[in-house]
Design brief:
It is a single chain. This protein has one domain. The chain has six helices and two strands. The chain has a two-stranded antiparallel ribbon with strand order 1-2. A hairpin with a 2-residue loop joins strand 1 and strand 2. Helix 1 runs antiparallel to helix 4, helix 2 packs antiparallel against helix 3 and helix 2 packs antiparallel against helix 5. The longest helix has 29 residues. The mean pLDDT is about 95.
């Protein structure tokens, strides 16, 4: 179990780093997907996924009962569906930039691989299946790496909520305008108004 929580923690940490680079920097800063007509649906799907992530963190990883586990798994299933819709729509969504760049495509493979690896390893550690049925393990306090994993989860939740909130706000005209003004201050060549 010690090694399992280390693996889950490393996977979650790598996912968080790559996810911020992809979901925040590439999507909201560099490409400003929310501002292009072709990619509005993709931004909507990304918004849904950013709303699901803190729910997965809270209910799946921090929950201590069956109801939390079921809710966490439900949010994971919804996330998988949203991922499929996102992947299907990306070809049309990125037409304005000549398609999805190869590097970002590879990044998406790694981001989602680490995301779902974390979930799979955690579920293997959390659920025990016997001849009599299945039950949840909730007492990991004696496993030193569990505390580190839970600490990481708790520290990711506020940032995940902020990124989700930013995604939601960028679906509306006034916040979008303010965000673009802020970004234009820091970029050498601001994007043309016609693309935003």
């Amino acid at each position: 179990m010690y090694l399992g929580f280390i693996i889950a923690g490393i996977s979650l940490f790598i996912f968080a780093l790559l996810g911020v680079y992809d979901g925040f920097y590439l999507h909201l800063v560099k490409y400003r997907l929310y501002g292009h007509k072709e990619s509005k649906f993709e931004h909507f799907i990304h918004t849904a996924r950013t709303l699901l992530f803190p729910l997965i963190l809270y209910f799946l990883f921090l929950g201590q009962n069956e109801v939390s586990l079921y809710l966490g798994i439900l949010f994971v299933v919804l996330d998988i569906i949203a991922l499929g819709v996102d992947a299907y729509s990306e070809e049309d969504s990125r037409a304005f930039m000549g398609g999805l760049p190869r590097g970002e495509y590879i990044l998406h493979l790694f981001v989602n691989g680490f995301h779902f690896a974390t979930i799979a390893v955690f579920l293997v550690l959390k659920i025990r299946i016997t001849e009599q049925g299945w039950y949840l393990l909730n007492n990991f306090e004696n496993v030193a790496s569990y505390g580190l994993f839970i600490g990481l989860v708790k520290n990711l939740i506020p940032g995940a909520i902020l990124i989700a909130l930013l995604h939601v706000l960028l679906n509306f005209k006034k916040p979008k305008k303010s965000w673009n003004r802020l970004l234009n201050r820091f970029q050498k060549q601001p994007l043309k108004k016609s693309t935003l």
